[in-house]
Specification:
The chain has about 625 residues and is an alpha/beta fold. The protein has 22 helices and 18 strands. The strands form 3 sheets. The chain has a 9-stranded parallel sheet with strand order 13-12-14-11-15-16-10-17-18, sandwiched between helices. Strand 15, helix 20 and strand 16 form a beta-alpha-beta unit. Helix 12 packs antiparallel against helix 13 and helix 13 packs across helix 14. The radius of gyration is 34 Å and the shape is elongated. The chain starts with a strand and ends with a strand. The relative contact order is 0.11.
């Protein structure tokens, strides 16, 4: 090494030595040190000279004599030009000149420093190898010898894990199992004589827990396969390989946009990740793996349908939240007004508030019915006590051009148990009557004068719901959520999924069918439930907060886009706060720029496959990749 600063170093190398070590590939690792590997003398680990600087080769660099050397090479090449049996470096250049010109420079980036240190907890323990991601000092006029790591040394470098992290994993999980991810390959031209073939790369699955990990790369570059390896290795933590290790059951949730994890396919030799439980001798599928989907699958009879009964009173706001999320990007005023309505049942002793709530529920259920939601058998529909007699009289005696419609609506609202579809017709007329008719304004003035509270008969919530009937597209838009509805279920799938994750199960949500917006909304609601429940446990000071790892395939379909600046989004909050609530996230997509900046900024582990766009590589360079980087 002949030049160094805090960020870069320049190395001089002779062709003889370059060839002897099998070549120097771009981006390969080199190490620089004052330690003499052939000396028998003991080293003093407290001295600076006993540290080892890790370098990465970036490119060649000019030596001071290179301009003159290039002129001589050109003149020498001209002398043998056209003579196929002669090479200018051996036929037309003298040995002394060739030896001098065989030197070349390498421009290297400084990755960090390896050094030895005491164990702070046990002074009698052996020294441990430590790594710092910088250099603490440098001397520009001090020679450092540079070496290309052998296979054994390279394996130690690329699989280095801080002893503190390993100890932390032992303390937290009593499990430090690692799994092979692949092999080192510096270049596409991977020639065996370079002496780095078959050097394995390992990861510690438990090191991904509570962390954010990204997988980027073009289609068909191995992102899904890497995800499967990670999920499988995390599952295997429950199967200790030694008596000292403790079984570690981690709840894993995979959002599967193409059904490749939930369904057998040719690409996986007619297998799927849902069959991972077979690796655990004696394990039953129902105790280990659960699959969800919008629709049934012929090869998965045990699949649970991710459906909700929107009509049940306990599910009213849950279903409303699902619809609201589907409509959150709709800018029309009547949809915005609809989304502002919130169902919260009042105290039973407040009869007036209870009547308003029941009236609101009746209108909402009529909207669902018109939108195509099938009502469950036995649903009790009643108008008793919900519609003021004077209001119905005003509608029945109206002399406006729509008098027949108002009369028909009043008759329906006077029935004790009309059908929801008939009520939808009546509410359409009621909405028009409230908005346009003088008869209603006269009724309301009289109603307010008689009321103890001074409130109008139709409050803002009721008007916001009735406003849906003004437009034919209103109920059509709401109908986009009907594929998430079932009249035959009573539980909330988001709650069910969280309970299964608490038990350490692998949950796969097959999103290969269904509307993309519905899938995105469902994933968001599930994530909010997981985040909220673990957050409650943290706030209560509970010691046993379940470890949960979320996988998001084709993440650009679910996570907020790169230009989205909403910091309140649940995915952004999970990236920023999830670690304290023991929620980890692994997301995979093609482009770095497609993911919201705050999620990228809180990502610890990066798995980078082929990126064929300089915009994407520049985007990646914005982030200090302080965790593991696997290419």
């Amino acid at each position: 090494m002949y030049s160094i600063n805090y960020e870069t170093a320049k190395v001089i190398i002779h062709n003889f030595h370059r060839q002897k070590v099998g070549g120097i590939a771009s981006l390969s690792f080199l190490i620089a040190t004052r330690i003499n590997p052939y000396s028998d003398l003991e080293i003093d680990y407290t001295k600076e000279d006993t540290s080892v600087i890790l370098l990465r080769v970036m490119d060649g660099t000019l030596l001071p004599q290179d301009i003159e050397a290039e002129r001589i090479r050109v003149e020498t090449a001209q002398r043998v030009s056209g003579e196929e049996d002669k090479f200018w470096d051996v036929s037309a250049m003298d040995a002394r000149t060739k030896n001098i010109f065989d030197y070349a420079g390498l421009q290297c980036r400084i990755i960090g420093t390896f050094f030895l240190d005491d164990n702070p907890h046990n002074s009698e323990a052996p020294l441990s190898l430590k790594f710092g991601s910088d250099i603490s000092n440098y001397y520009p006029n001090r020679d450092l010898k540079v070496y290309k790591p052998t296979a054994a040394a390279l394996e130690e470098i690329i699989n280095y894990c801080d002893p503190i992290n390993i100890q932390d994993q032992k303390d937290r999980f009593n499990n430090v199992k690692r799994v092979k991810l692949g092999n080192v390959r510096y270049a596409s031209t991977n020639r065996r004589f370079q002496h780095v073939d078959d050097v394995p790369v390992y990861i510690y699955p438990s090191d991904l827990l509570s962390q954010k990990s990204a997988l980027f790369g073009m289609t068909r570059t191995g992102k899904s396969n890497t995800t499967k390896i990670i999920a499988k290795s995390v599952y295997e933590l429950r199967m200790p390989s030694t008596q000292e290790e403790k079984p570690l059951k981690i709840g894993q949730l995979i959002f599967d946009p193409n059904g490749e994890y939930a369904n057998e396919n040719v690409q996986d030799n007619n297998n799927a990740l849902k069959n991972v439980y077979k690796l655990n001798a004696g394990a039953k599928k129902e105790d280990e793996v659960v699959t969800y989907g919008i629709t049934n699958h012929p090869n998965d009879p045990e699949r649970k349908l991710m459906l909700l009964n929107f009509f049940l009173e306990e599910n009213l706001q849950i279903g409303k939240d699902i619809i609201d999320r589907l409509l959150e990007d709709d800018g029309t005023n009547y949809i915005k007004s609809f989304c502002q309505v919130f169902f919260e049942k009042p105290d039973a002793s407040d009869q007036g508030a209870l009547t308003r709530f029941n009236r609101l529920v009746l209108v909402y259920r009529a909207i669902l019915a018109r939108a195509g939601f099938v009502a469950p058998n036995g649903l009790r529909i009643t108008t008793k006590g919900l519609f003021n007699r004077e209001l119905l009289r005003a509608m029945s005696t109206s002399q406006s051009s729509s008098a027949s419609d108002y009369l028909s609506a009043a008759q329906i609202l006077s029935e004790e148990s009309p059908s929801l579809n008939r009520l939808a017709i009546a509410f359409e007329s009621l909405d028009k009557f409230i908005r346009t008719e003088t008869d209603y304004r006269n009724f309301e003035s009289s109603y307010i004068a008689k009321s103890k509270s001074g409130e109008p008969w139709a409050d803002s919530n009721l008007k916001n719901l009735l406003g849906i009937f003004q437009y034919s597209n209103g109920t059509k838009k709401i109908g986009r959520a009907k594929e998430l509805h079932s009249p035959n279920t009573s539980s909330d799938f988001a709650s069910d999924i969280y309970e299964q994750l608490k038990k350490g199960k692998l949950v796969i949500v097959d999103q290969s069918s269904g509307d993309p917006e519905v899938n995105r909304s469902s994933a968001k609601r599930i994530m909010q439930r997981i985040f909220g429940e673990n957050q409650k446990l943290f706030i209560k000071g509970e010691k046993e907060i379940p470890e949960i790892l979320i996988y998001i395939e084709e993440a650009h379909n679910i996570l907020p886009a790169g230009n989205d600046l909403d910091l309140s989004d649940i995915w952004v909050r999970t990236a920023k706060e999830g670690a304290k609530y023991k929620i980890g996230m692994v997301y995979a997509t093609q482009e770095v720029s497609s993911i919201q900046k705050n999620i990228l900024r809180n990502t610890s582990n990066w798995f980078i496959a082929h990126l064929n766009n300089t915009d994407e590589t520049k985007e990646l360079c914005k982030y200090w990749l302080k965790g593991q980087i696997y290419s």
